[in-house]
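anyone seen this seq b4? input:
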Amino acid sequence: MAEGVLAGRIALVTGASRGIGAEIARRFAAEGATVVATARTAEPGGAPLEGSLADTVAAVAAAGGRAHAVAADLSRAADRVALVERVTAEHGPVDVLVNNAAVTWFTPIADFPAKRAALMLEVQVTAPMHLAQLVLPAMRERGSGAILNISSRAAIHPQLPPTARAARGGTVYGMCKAALERFTTGLAAEVYSDGIAVNALSPNRVVPTPGTVFHHLTTDDDPDAEPPAVMAEAALALCRPAADGSPPLTGRVTYSQDLLAELGIAAPAAG
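predicted toks r here
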């Protein structure tokens, strides 16, 4: 672990109790990072969906890595401030921030409750921006850092006539992800001269996670789905320092399998 490409770095991964966030936490820890995993679900059984921070930390430890759990509700600004303050005090400044946390409902706009839309925007757009603001000063001071925003193909504008999936009520979700991608490229431009990489990453295909299975977007045995490990490997490629000292990849709005193919990295297989 100590010889990994993220050795000595502190990685803060949000939404790390399950799914893509948990897989990224495990992959980064395998490369030597000290991972701070955050989400609302601290212990097993604490949410309707399978997965918890305790599960993620245990999986990392079983593989010989280092991970710590900090429960936080990222819809609350005070929780976001307290989270970064605690990570900094206990482990040091954040070197890598992965904004993966999400809360999602799929409902047509005509029936979408304003309270739910506001919560989705808070967690998926405002929280990533605020967390970036909180970690940027230390990154700028060190002249390095990586911020990765997990997006979705839902950000792409639907074509007409729409597919059945496009018509089922994913407009607010897509709106959040489109805003997140524009935030990504704008921030990348603002901090380019500081040596900080800012990218957005989406899966090429739907990833079977407790959330996507719950929303009936895929199934655990879907042969056309993308293994979570593919996203984790692509995330690592965007957050690792350049081996030869060249500028990091930044300002990308990219897709997992496309990025790995571009970089000549083999995509992990299912399981």
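Strands lie at 10-14, 34-39, 66-71, 96-99, 145-150, 196-202, 253-255. The mean pLDDT is 93. kinda curious what u guys think
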